[in-house]
From TrEMBL:
Residues 14-152, 184-286, 295-407 form the Alpha-D-phosphohexomutase alpha/beta/alpha domain. It is an enzyme of class 5 (isomerase). GO terms for molecular function: magnesium ion binding; phosphoglucomutase activity. This is phosphoglucomutase (alpha-D-glucose-1,6-bisphosphate-dependent). Its EC number is 5.4.2.2. It catalyses: alpha-D-glucose 1-phosphate = alpha-D-glucose 6-phosphate. PROSITE patterns: PGM_PMM. It comes from Hyella patelloides LEGE 07179.
Length: 543
């Protein structure tokens, strides 16, 4: 046999976070680090013998090396077949779509998403289950438990596979099929949206600009927008995936997608702009001189879903993560559909989508998606918006401001304090947790606390409980402040402060967001003593 069993010792830090295991590339390059985690995944799967799995990543530095190692380990762990994306490439939503279309057992997705890439950047790995979605906590915990006691891993001694040619190969008994990672995804998009009507829009006077931020969606966006939808070549900017994302931070927000922001807020701005992140699951939507908050985007898509062929019969329900604004809740109420509030991270939407309780899902962190896959999906959101614009003939700004006139406006912003010292950040959270039970009824200036808790979620489908998901403080006027620590960062801790206020009066919708939220921003400091615990006077990123 060519299977080697290699002795190893555990690493204590292989606990998956909000979306898989994310660490600096140099951490993954330690001898046995990747192997230990991959063996812990294979060891935790039941019934994977002879099964098909999907494998691909966002193309960042170390993607190719990791894929070669995982293929050889899969062969040694009795996997029957691996479908791997050409060049090792697969966006996160495409991986989800491919797992579902091929009825695969699961998949391994290599990505650190919006974290910078390159030798000095980050790398990541996560496991997705049969429904195409991120493994639920039960499985990620089992993987972590195994990683703490691992003694050996199995690997097949074989040559590297040529990832750049569509073909079917073998490693021992296992088949490796190198597939086109774009075609199945593009087809799925064509089945959901009115491509003819979007094509007509894009070939007229309407101008759009798509920023792929040198990351994985470049390949997808060129095929879909430039080829299939006939938008001019050059519509996709930063469209060649690079291992270090051109040195940038592939996070589609007003701070990091500045190339695109400069264009949409500059002279002769196009009608529509969009960006996506490292692994293609996030999206930012811009109009001419106009920014759509992700929370508003979810609400707008929900309100207009029946304009889109894939959703013409209406929605089962809508789901949003807890820190996401309540804008979608108001739409759900009007439509008479259920609205679910889940902890942060896409893994919590899977059960709701599988059970036909929700059709659309969204997070404030530039994530939107639906039951077409089990991940959030950046280009899907862009196409959804284009389909709405094509159907209504309205501008992005008109759609959003008219939406506010009907439902009121939820002013919303997130303040991130990145890479602060871990211990004091945890103390800040512990202090808040200790405070919540005494807060209701308390008065702060003009605000009275309505409720305060550390969010706990009981999954309505399988009854599983997830505790300590973030401290939320709601006020009697409908405003809210949420505090939580990031589960995707790789340096120190990142404190996220989520701020929201509600304004029903259309005459007051034109105020600058940070200005509208100023009293709450001050209140967040007063309650949480952010400066004292983090030594930071200002957040590092405001979205
Ligand atoms: C962040 C976002 C969360 C998102 C997660 C993964 O998590 O806040 O909404 O689901 O990233 O997105 P955290 O724990 O750092 O707040 V991605 O595009 O990085 O897979
Ligand atoms: Co992502």
């Amino acid at each position: 046999m060519d299977i080697r069993t290699v002795p190893t010792t555990p690493f204590s830090d292989q606990k998956p976070g909000t979306s898989g295991l994310r660490k600096a590339v140099t951490v993954f390059q330690q001898p046995n680090y990747l192997e230990n985690f991959v063996q812990s995944i294979f060891g935790s799967l039941e019934g994977s013998q002879g099964a098909t799995i999907v494998l691909g990543g966002d193309g960042r530095y170390y993607n190719r090396q990791a894929i070669q190692i995982i293929l050889k380990m899969a062969a040694a762990n009795d996997i029957g077949k691996v479908l791997v994306g050409k060049g090792g490439i697969m966006s996160t939503p495409a991986a989800s779509a491919i797992i579902r279309q091929y009825k695969a057992f699961g998949g391994i997705v290599l990505s650190a998403s919006h974290n910078p890439g390159g030798k000095d950047g980050d790398f990541g790995i996560k496991y997705n289950i049969t429904n195409g979605g991120p493994a639920p906590e039960k499985i990620t915990e089992a993987i972590f438990e195994r990683s703490k006691v691992i003694e050996s891993y199995k690997i097949f001694d074989a040559e590297d596979v040529n990832l750049d040619k569509l073909s079917v190969l073998r490693i021992g008994e296992m088949a490796v099929e190198v597939i086109d990672p774009v075609e199945p995804y593009a087809k799925l998009m064509e089945s959901l949206f009115d491509f003819a009507s979007i094509r007509k829009l894009l070939q007229g006077d309407f101008k759009m600009c798509m920023d792929s931020m040198h990351a994985v969606t470049g390949t997808y966006a060129k095929e879909i927008f430039e080829k299939r939808l006939g938008a001019g070549s050059g519509t996709v900017m930063n469209g060649t995936p690079l291992e270090d994302f051109g040195g940038g931070h592939p996070d589609p927000n007003l701070v990091y997608a500045h190339d695109l922001v400069d264009i949409l807020f500059g002279e002769n701005a196009p009608d529509f702009g969009a960006a996506s992140d490292g692994d293609g699951d996030r999206n930012m939507i811009l109009g001419n001189n106009f920014f759509v908050t992700p929370s508003d985007s979810l609400a707008v898509l929900t309100a207009n879903a029946t304009l889109v062929p894939g959703y013409k019969d209406g929605l089962f329900g809508v789901a949003r993560s807890m820190p996401t604004s309540a804008a979608a809740d108001r739409v759900a109420e009007k439509l008479g559909i259920d609205c679910y509030e889940t902890p942060t991270g896409w893994k919590f939407f899977g059960n709701l989508l599988d059970a036909d309780k929700a059709t659309l899902c969204g997070e404030e962190s530039f994530g939107t998606g639906s039951n077409h896959v089990r991940e959030k999906d950046g280009l899907w959101a862009v196409l959804f918006w284009l389909n709405i614009l094509a159907e209504t003939g309205k501008s992005v700004e008109d759609i959003v401001t008219e939406h506010w006139q009907i439902y009121g406006r939820n002013f919303y912003s997130r303040h991130d304090y990145e890479a602060v010292a871990k211990e004091p950040a945890m103390k800040l959270m512990d202090r808040l947790r200790g405070m919540v039970k005494d807060l209701p009824g308390k008065q702060f200036g003009g605000y009275t606390v309505d409720y305060a808790d550390d969010f706990s979620y009981t999954d309505p489908v399988d009854g599983s409980v997830s505790n300590k998901q973030g401290v939320r403080i709601g006020f009697t006027d409908g405003s809210r402040i949420v505090f939580r620590l990031s589960g995707t960062g790789t340096k120190g801790a990142t404190l996220r402060v989520y701020l929201e206020s509600y304004e029903p009066d259309a005459g007051k919708h034109n105020v600058d967001t940070q200005e509208a939220l100023k009293p709450l921003i001050d209140l967040a400091e007063e309650i949480a003593q952010i400066y004292q615990y983090t030594q930071r006077k200002e957040p590092t990123v405001i979205t």
